[in-house]
């Protein structure tokens, strides 16, 4: 295979994969840059990465065109992510003021999730 054929083949392969790669990059950026756990990370880092990934997957809702409903559906996953991260702080964190904040976040976000789930039950189509 000569250099010209190799170059044309590479250019064609790039032209075919670039749009898909751009879409994946855009999706990843929108999803908070889905993270992979590098080997040797601390248990808390692994837990935060998992919680962040779960939250962003949950926020990838099918939009209805109803701003209220879309807001609530996205925020439920967002709030659950905050709860999950606060629980990681309680499991691994040592700073008492941050542990108190984590407890407050759990209490507040759980209440707001209940309110939003009630709203969806009454108002979602």
From TrEMBL:
InterPro entries: DUF305_CopM-like, Ferritin-like. Gene3D superfamilies: 1.20.1260.10. It comes from Shinella yambaruensis. It comes from the Bacteria. The keyword Signal applies. Residues 1-22 form the signal peptide. This is DUF305 domain-containing protein. Residues 32-120 form the DUF305 domain. The keyword Cytoplasm does not apply. Keywords: Signal. PANTHER family: SLL0788 PROTEIN.
């Amino acid at each position: 295979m000569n250099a010209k054929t190799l170059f044309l083949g590479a250019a064609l392969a790039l032209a075919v994969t670039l749009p898909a790669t751009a879409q994946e990059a855009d999706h990843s950026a929108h999803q908070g840059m889905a993270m992979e756990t590098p080997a040797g990370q601390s248990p808390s880092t692994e837990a935060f990465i998992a919680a962040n990934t779960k939250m962003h997957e949950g926020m990838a809702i099918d939009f209805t065109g109803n701003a209220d409903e879309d807001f609530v559906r996205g925020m439920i996953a967002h709030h659950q992510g905050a709860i999950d991260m606060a629980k990681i702080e309680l499991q691994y964190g040592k700073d008492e003021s941050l542990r108190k904040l984590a407890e407050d976040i759990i209490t507040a976000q759980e209440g707001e999730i209940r309110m939003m789930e009630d709203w969806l039950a009454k108002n979602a189509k």
